[in-house]
Amino acid sequence: MVQIQFDLPEGTLASLRKDPASFVRELRLAAAAKWYELRLLSQERAAELAGLSRADFLDSLIRFGVSPFQYDTGEILDEVRGE
After folding, report:
1. What is the pLDDT of residues 8-65, one digit of tens each?
2. How many angstroms separate the Cα of 17 from the Cα of each of 20, 21, 26, 30?
3. Exposure string (b/e) for 7-44, b if CB count within 10 Å is 16 or more?
């Protein structure tokens, strides 16, 4: 396990209405969702980063407007064509 520490501007937690523990959970989930969307992390690794099961991670993607499917239109057409 790696531990990372950083400073936040005063008022950030209050503005987000988060206590430190809730903020950390939300930050990990947001990072996992974005990096999954950018195809930098697999579902498994993103769920691990978020501290969730894969099913719970996939369910949470809706909040961020991220599709659980990492296929674009061209890839789907290629697969249908057998390419």
Report:
1. 898 998 899 999 999 999 999 999 999 999 999 999 999 999 999 999 999 999 999 9
2. 10, 12, 12, 16
3. eeeeeeeeeeeeeeeeeeeeebbeebbeebbeeebebe
Q: What are phi and psi of 24, to 5 degrees?
A: -60, -45
Residue 28, C-beta contacts closer than 8 angstroms, at least 6 positions apart: 49, 50, 51
Locate the domains of the chain by residue range: 12-81
| Local structure of residue 64 (DSSP, 8 states) | G
